UniProtKB/TrEMBL annotation:
This is Glutamate 5-kinase. PROSITE patterns: GLUTAMATE_5_KINASE, PUA. Catalyzes the transfer of a phosphate group to glutamate to form L-glutamate 5-phosphate. Its EC number is 2.7.2.11. Substrate binds at S63, D148, N160.
Length: 383
């Protein structure tokens, strides 16, 4: 990795974090002439390993499949190839990309291919989140990429920056690290304007800040600084800070592993927990509700517990798995809404498991989405 010049950005101390997403773009992985190179990936892998050894969790969002495919079938490598040709290159390159990351780690690397549609659909969103969290619990290292072999609009955008922000919210990350091929955000494009100055701390993504971002500076990458700031805005809405840094600088990456940032920090507007609770409180609810007994209501209010099927007495309406619904109980003045949250089961399923112990869910339904009807991370209490 290049250590020739120190970063023009001043040192910042990273806040503590428990789980993070690291986005790595094609410009850091693509070799000259096609294919992939470990040149810069090695240092980033060492950053990941250092944090895993410290007990933290990391999810990698990695571009590079199309670049890898170009080395396998060079004749299809022309820039501007038809979408189908690029999709074929992505299919050829995905295995190469997963292999590149696996070579750096003793723990298993899990390839997870997603599209934005997977994350917009609430049921698929829940399935993706459950899979990623289970992989982390198993000690695996998830490597996420867009499923470029089937997506069209996403492939044309090539925007893994925004995908990384969505994944950060998906896994309840505390930080989003975006490795790029420049030092961070500048007041203008430093490659074209010698008067450009580093912007080390962004408290608000105003129009003036967004105007500082230029286009893509790489022949293999398709996301410029503008998409990185868009991603930071998405992450910030979920209460997640974003850190932009130069993934080509060994000095910068080693410092990052020691909790020191030479780059740009984009602050979230509110804390991650506050952002999540705000969304849960104000997102539209589906018609219907889950009705609970007094014991379950007390456990939710006093113990911060998840809603288990044993405390459920009924399900109203016809909601589906992944829908936002109200949680109600009978009170002195009739039915009272005490909470709202995302149901792990449909109304039909909730009726079948109401009053049952969590351990009999699979025997009753023939499948199991977890032991809770509404997990505490997906639930907010109401006054």
């Amino acid at each position: 990795m290049n250590d020739a010049a120190p970063s023009p950005f001043a040192e910042q101390i990273l806040p503590p974090w428990r789980r993070a997403v690291l986005k790595v773009g094609s410009s850091l992985l693509a070799a000259d002439g096609g294919g992939l190179t470990p040149r810069f990936a090695l240092g980033l892998a060492q950053f990941v390993s250092a944090n895993l050894l410290a007990g933290r969790e990391v999810v990698i969002v990695s571009s590079g499949a199309v670049a890898a495919g170009r080395a396998i079938v060079p004749r299809a490598a022309e820039a501007g190839a038809a979408i189908a040709a690029r999709q074929a290159l992505a299919a050829l390159g995905q295995a190469q990309l997963a292999t590149l990351w696996q070579r750096f780690f003793e723990r298993p690397v899990a390839q997870v291919l997603l599209t934005h549609d997977d994350l917009r659909n609430r049921r698929r969103y829940l399935n993706a989140r459950a899979t990623l969290k289970e992989l982390l619990a198993l000690g695996a290292l998830p490597v996420v990429n867009e499923n470029d072999t089937v997506s069209v609009d996403e492939l044309k955008l090539g925007d893994n920056d925004n995908l990384a922000a969505i994944v950060a919210a998906l896994v309840d990350a505390d930080a989003l690290f975006i490795a790029t091929d420049i030092d961070g955000l500048y007041t203008a494009d430093p490659r074209r304007d010698p008067r450009a100055r580093p912007v080390e701390d962004v408290r608000e993504l105003s129009e003036a800040v967004m105007a500082m971002a230029g286009g893509s500076g790489s022949a293999v990458g398709t996301g410029g600084m503008h998409t990185k700031l868009q991603a930071a805005a998405k992450a910030g809405a979920a209460g997640i800070d974003t850190y932009l840094f130069n993934g080509r600088s060994g000095e910068v990456v080693r410092a990052l592993a020691q909790g020191r940032l030479y780059g740009t920090r984009v602050h979230a507007g509110r804390s991650r927990i506050a952002a999540r609770k705000y969304w849960l409180r104000h997102a539209p609810v589906e018609p219907g509700a889950i009705v609970v007994d007094a014991g379950a209501a007390r456990a939710l209010r006093e113990n911060g517990a998840s809603l288990l099927p044993g405390g459920v007495t009924a399900a109203e309406g016809d909601f589906r798995r992944g829908d936002m619904v109200e949680v109600r109980m009978h009170g002195g003045d009739g039915m009272q809404c005490i909470a709202r949250g995302i149901s792990q089961y449909s109304a039909v399923d909730v009726r079948r498991i109401a009053g049952c112990h969590s351990r009999v869910i699979e025997a009753t339904l023939g499948y199991n989405y977890g032991g809770s009807v509404v997990h505490r991370d997906d639930l907010v209490l109401l006054p």
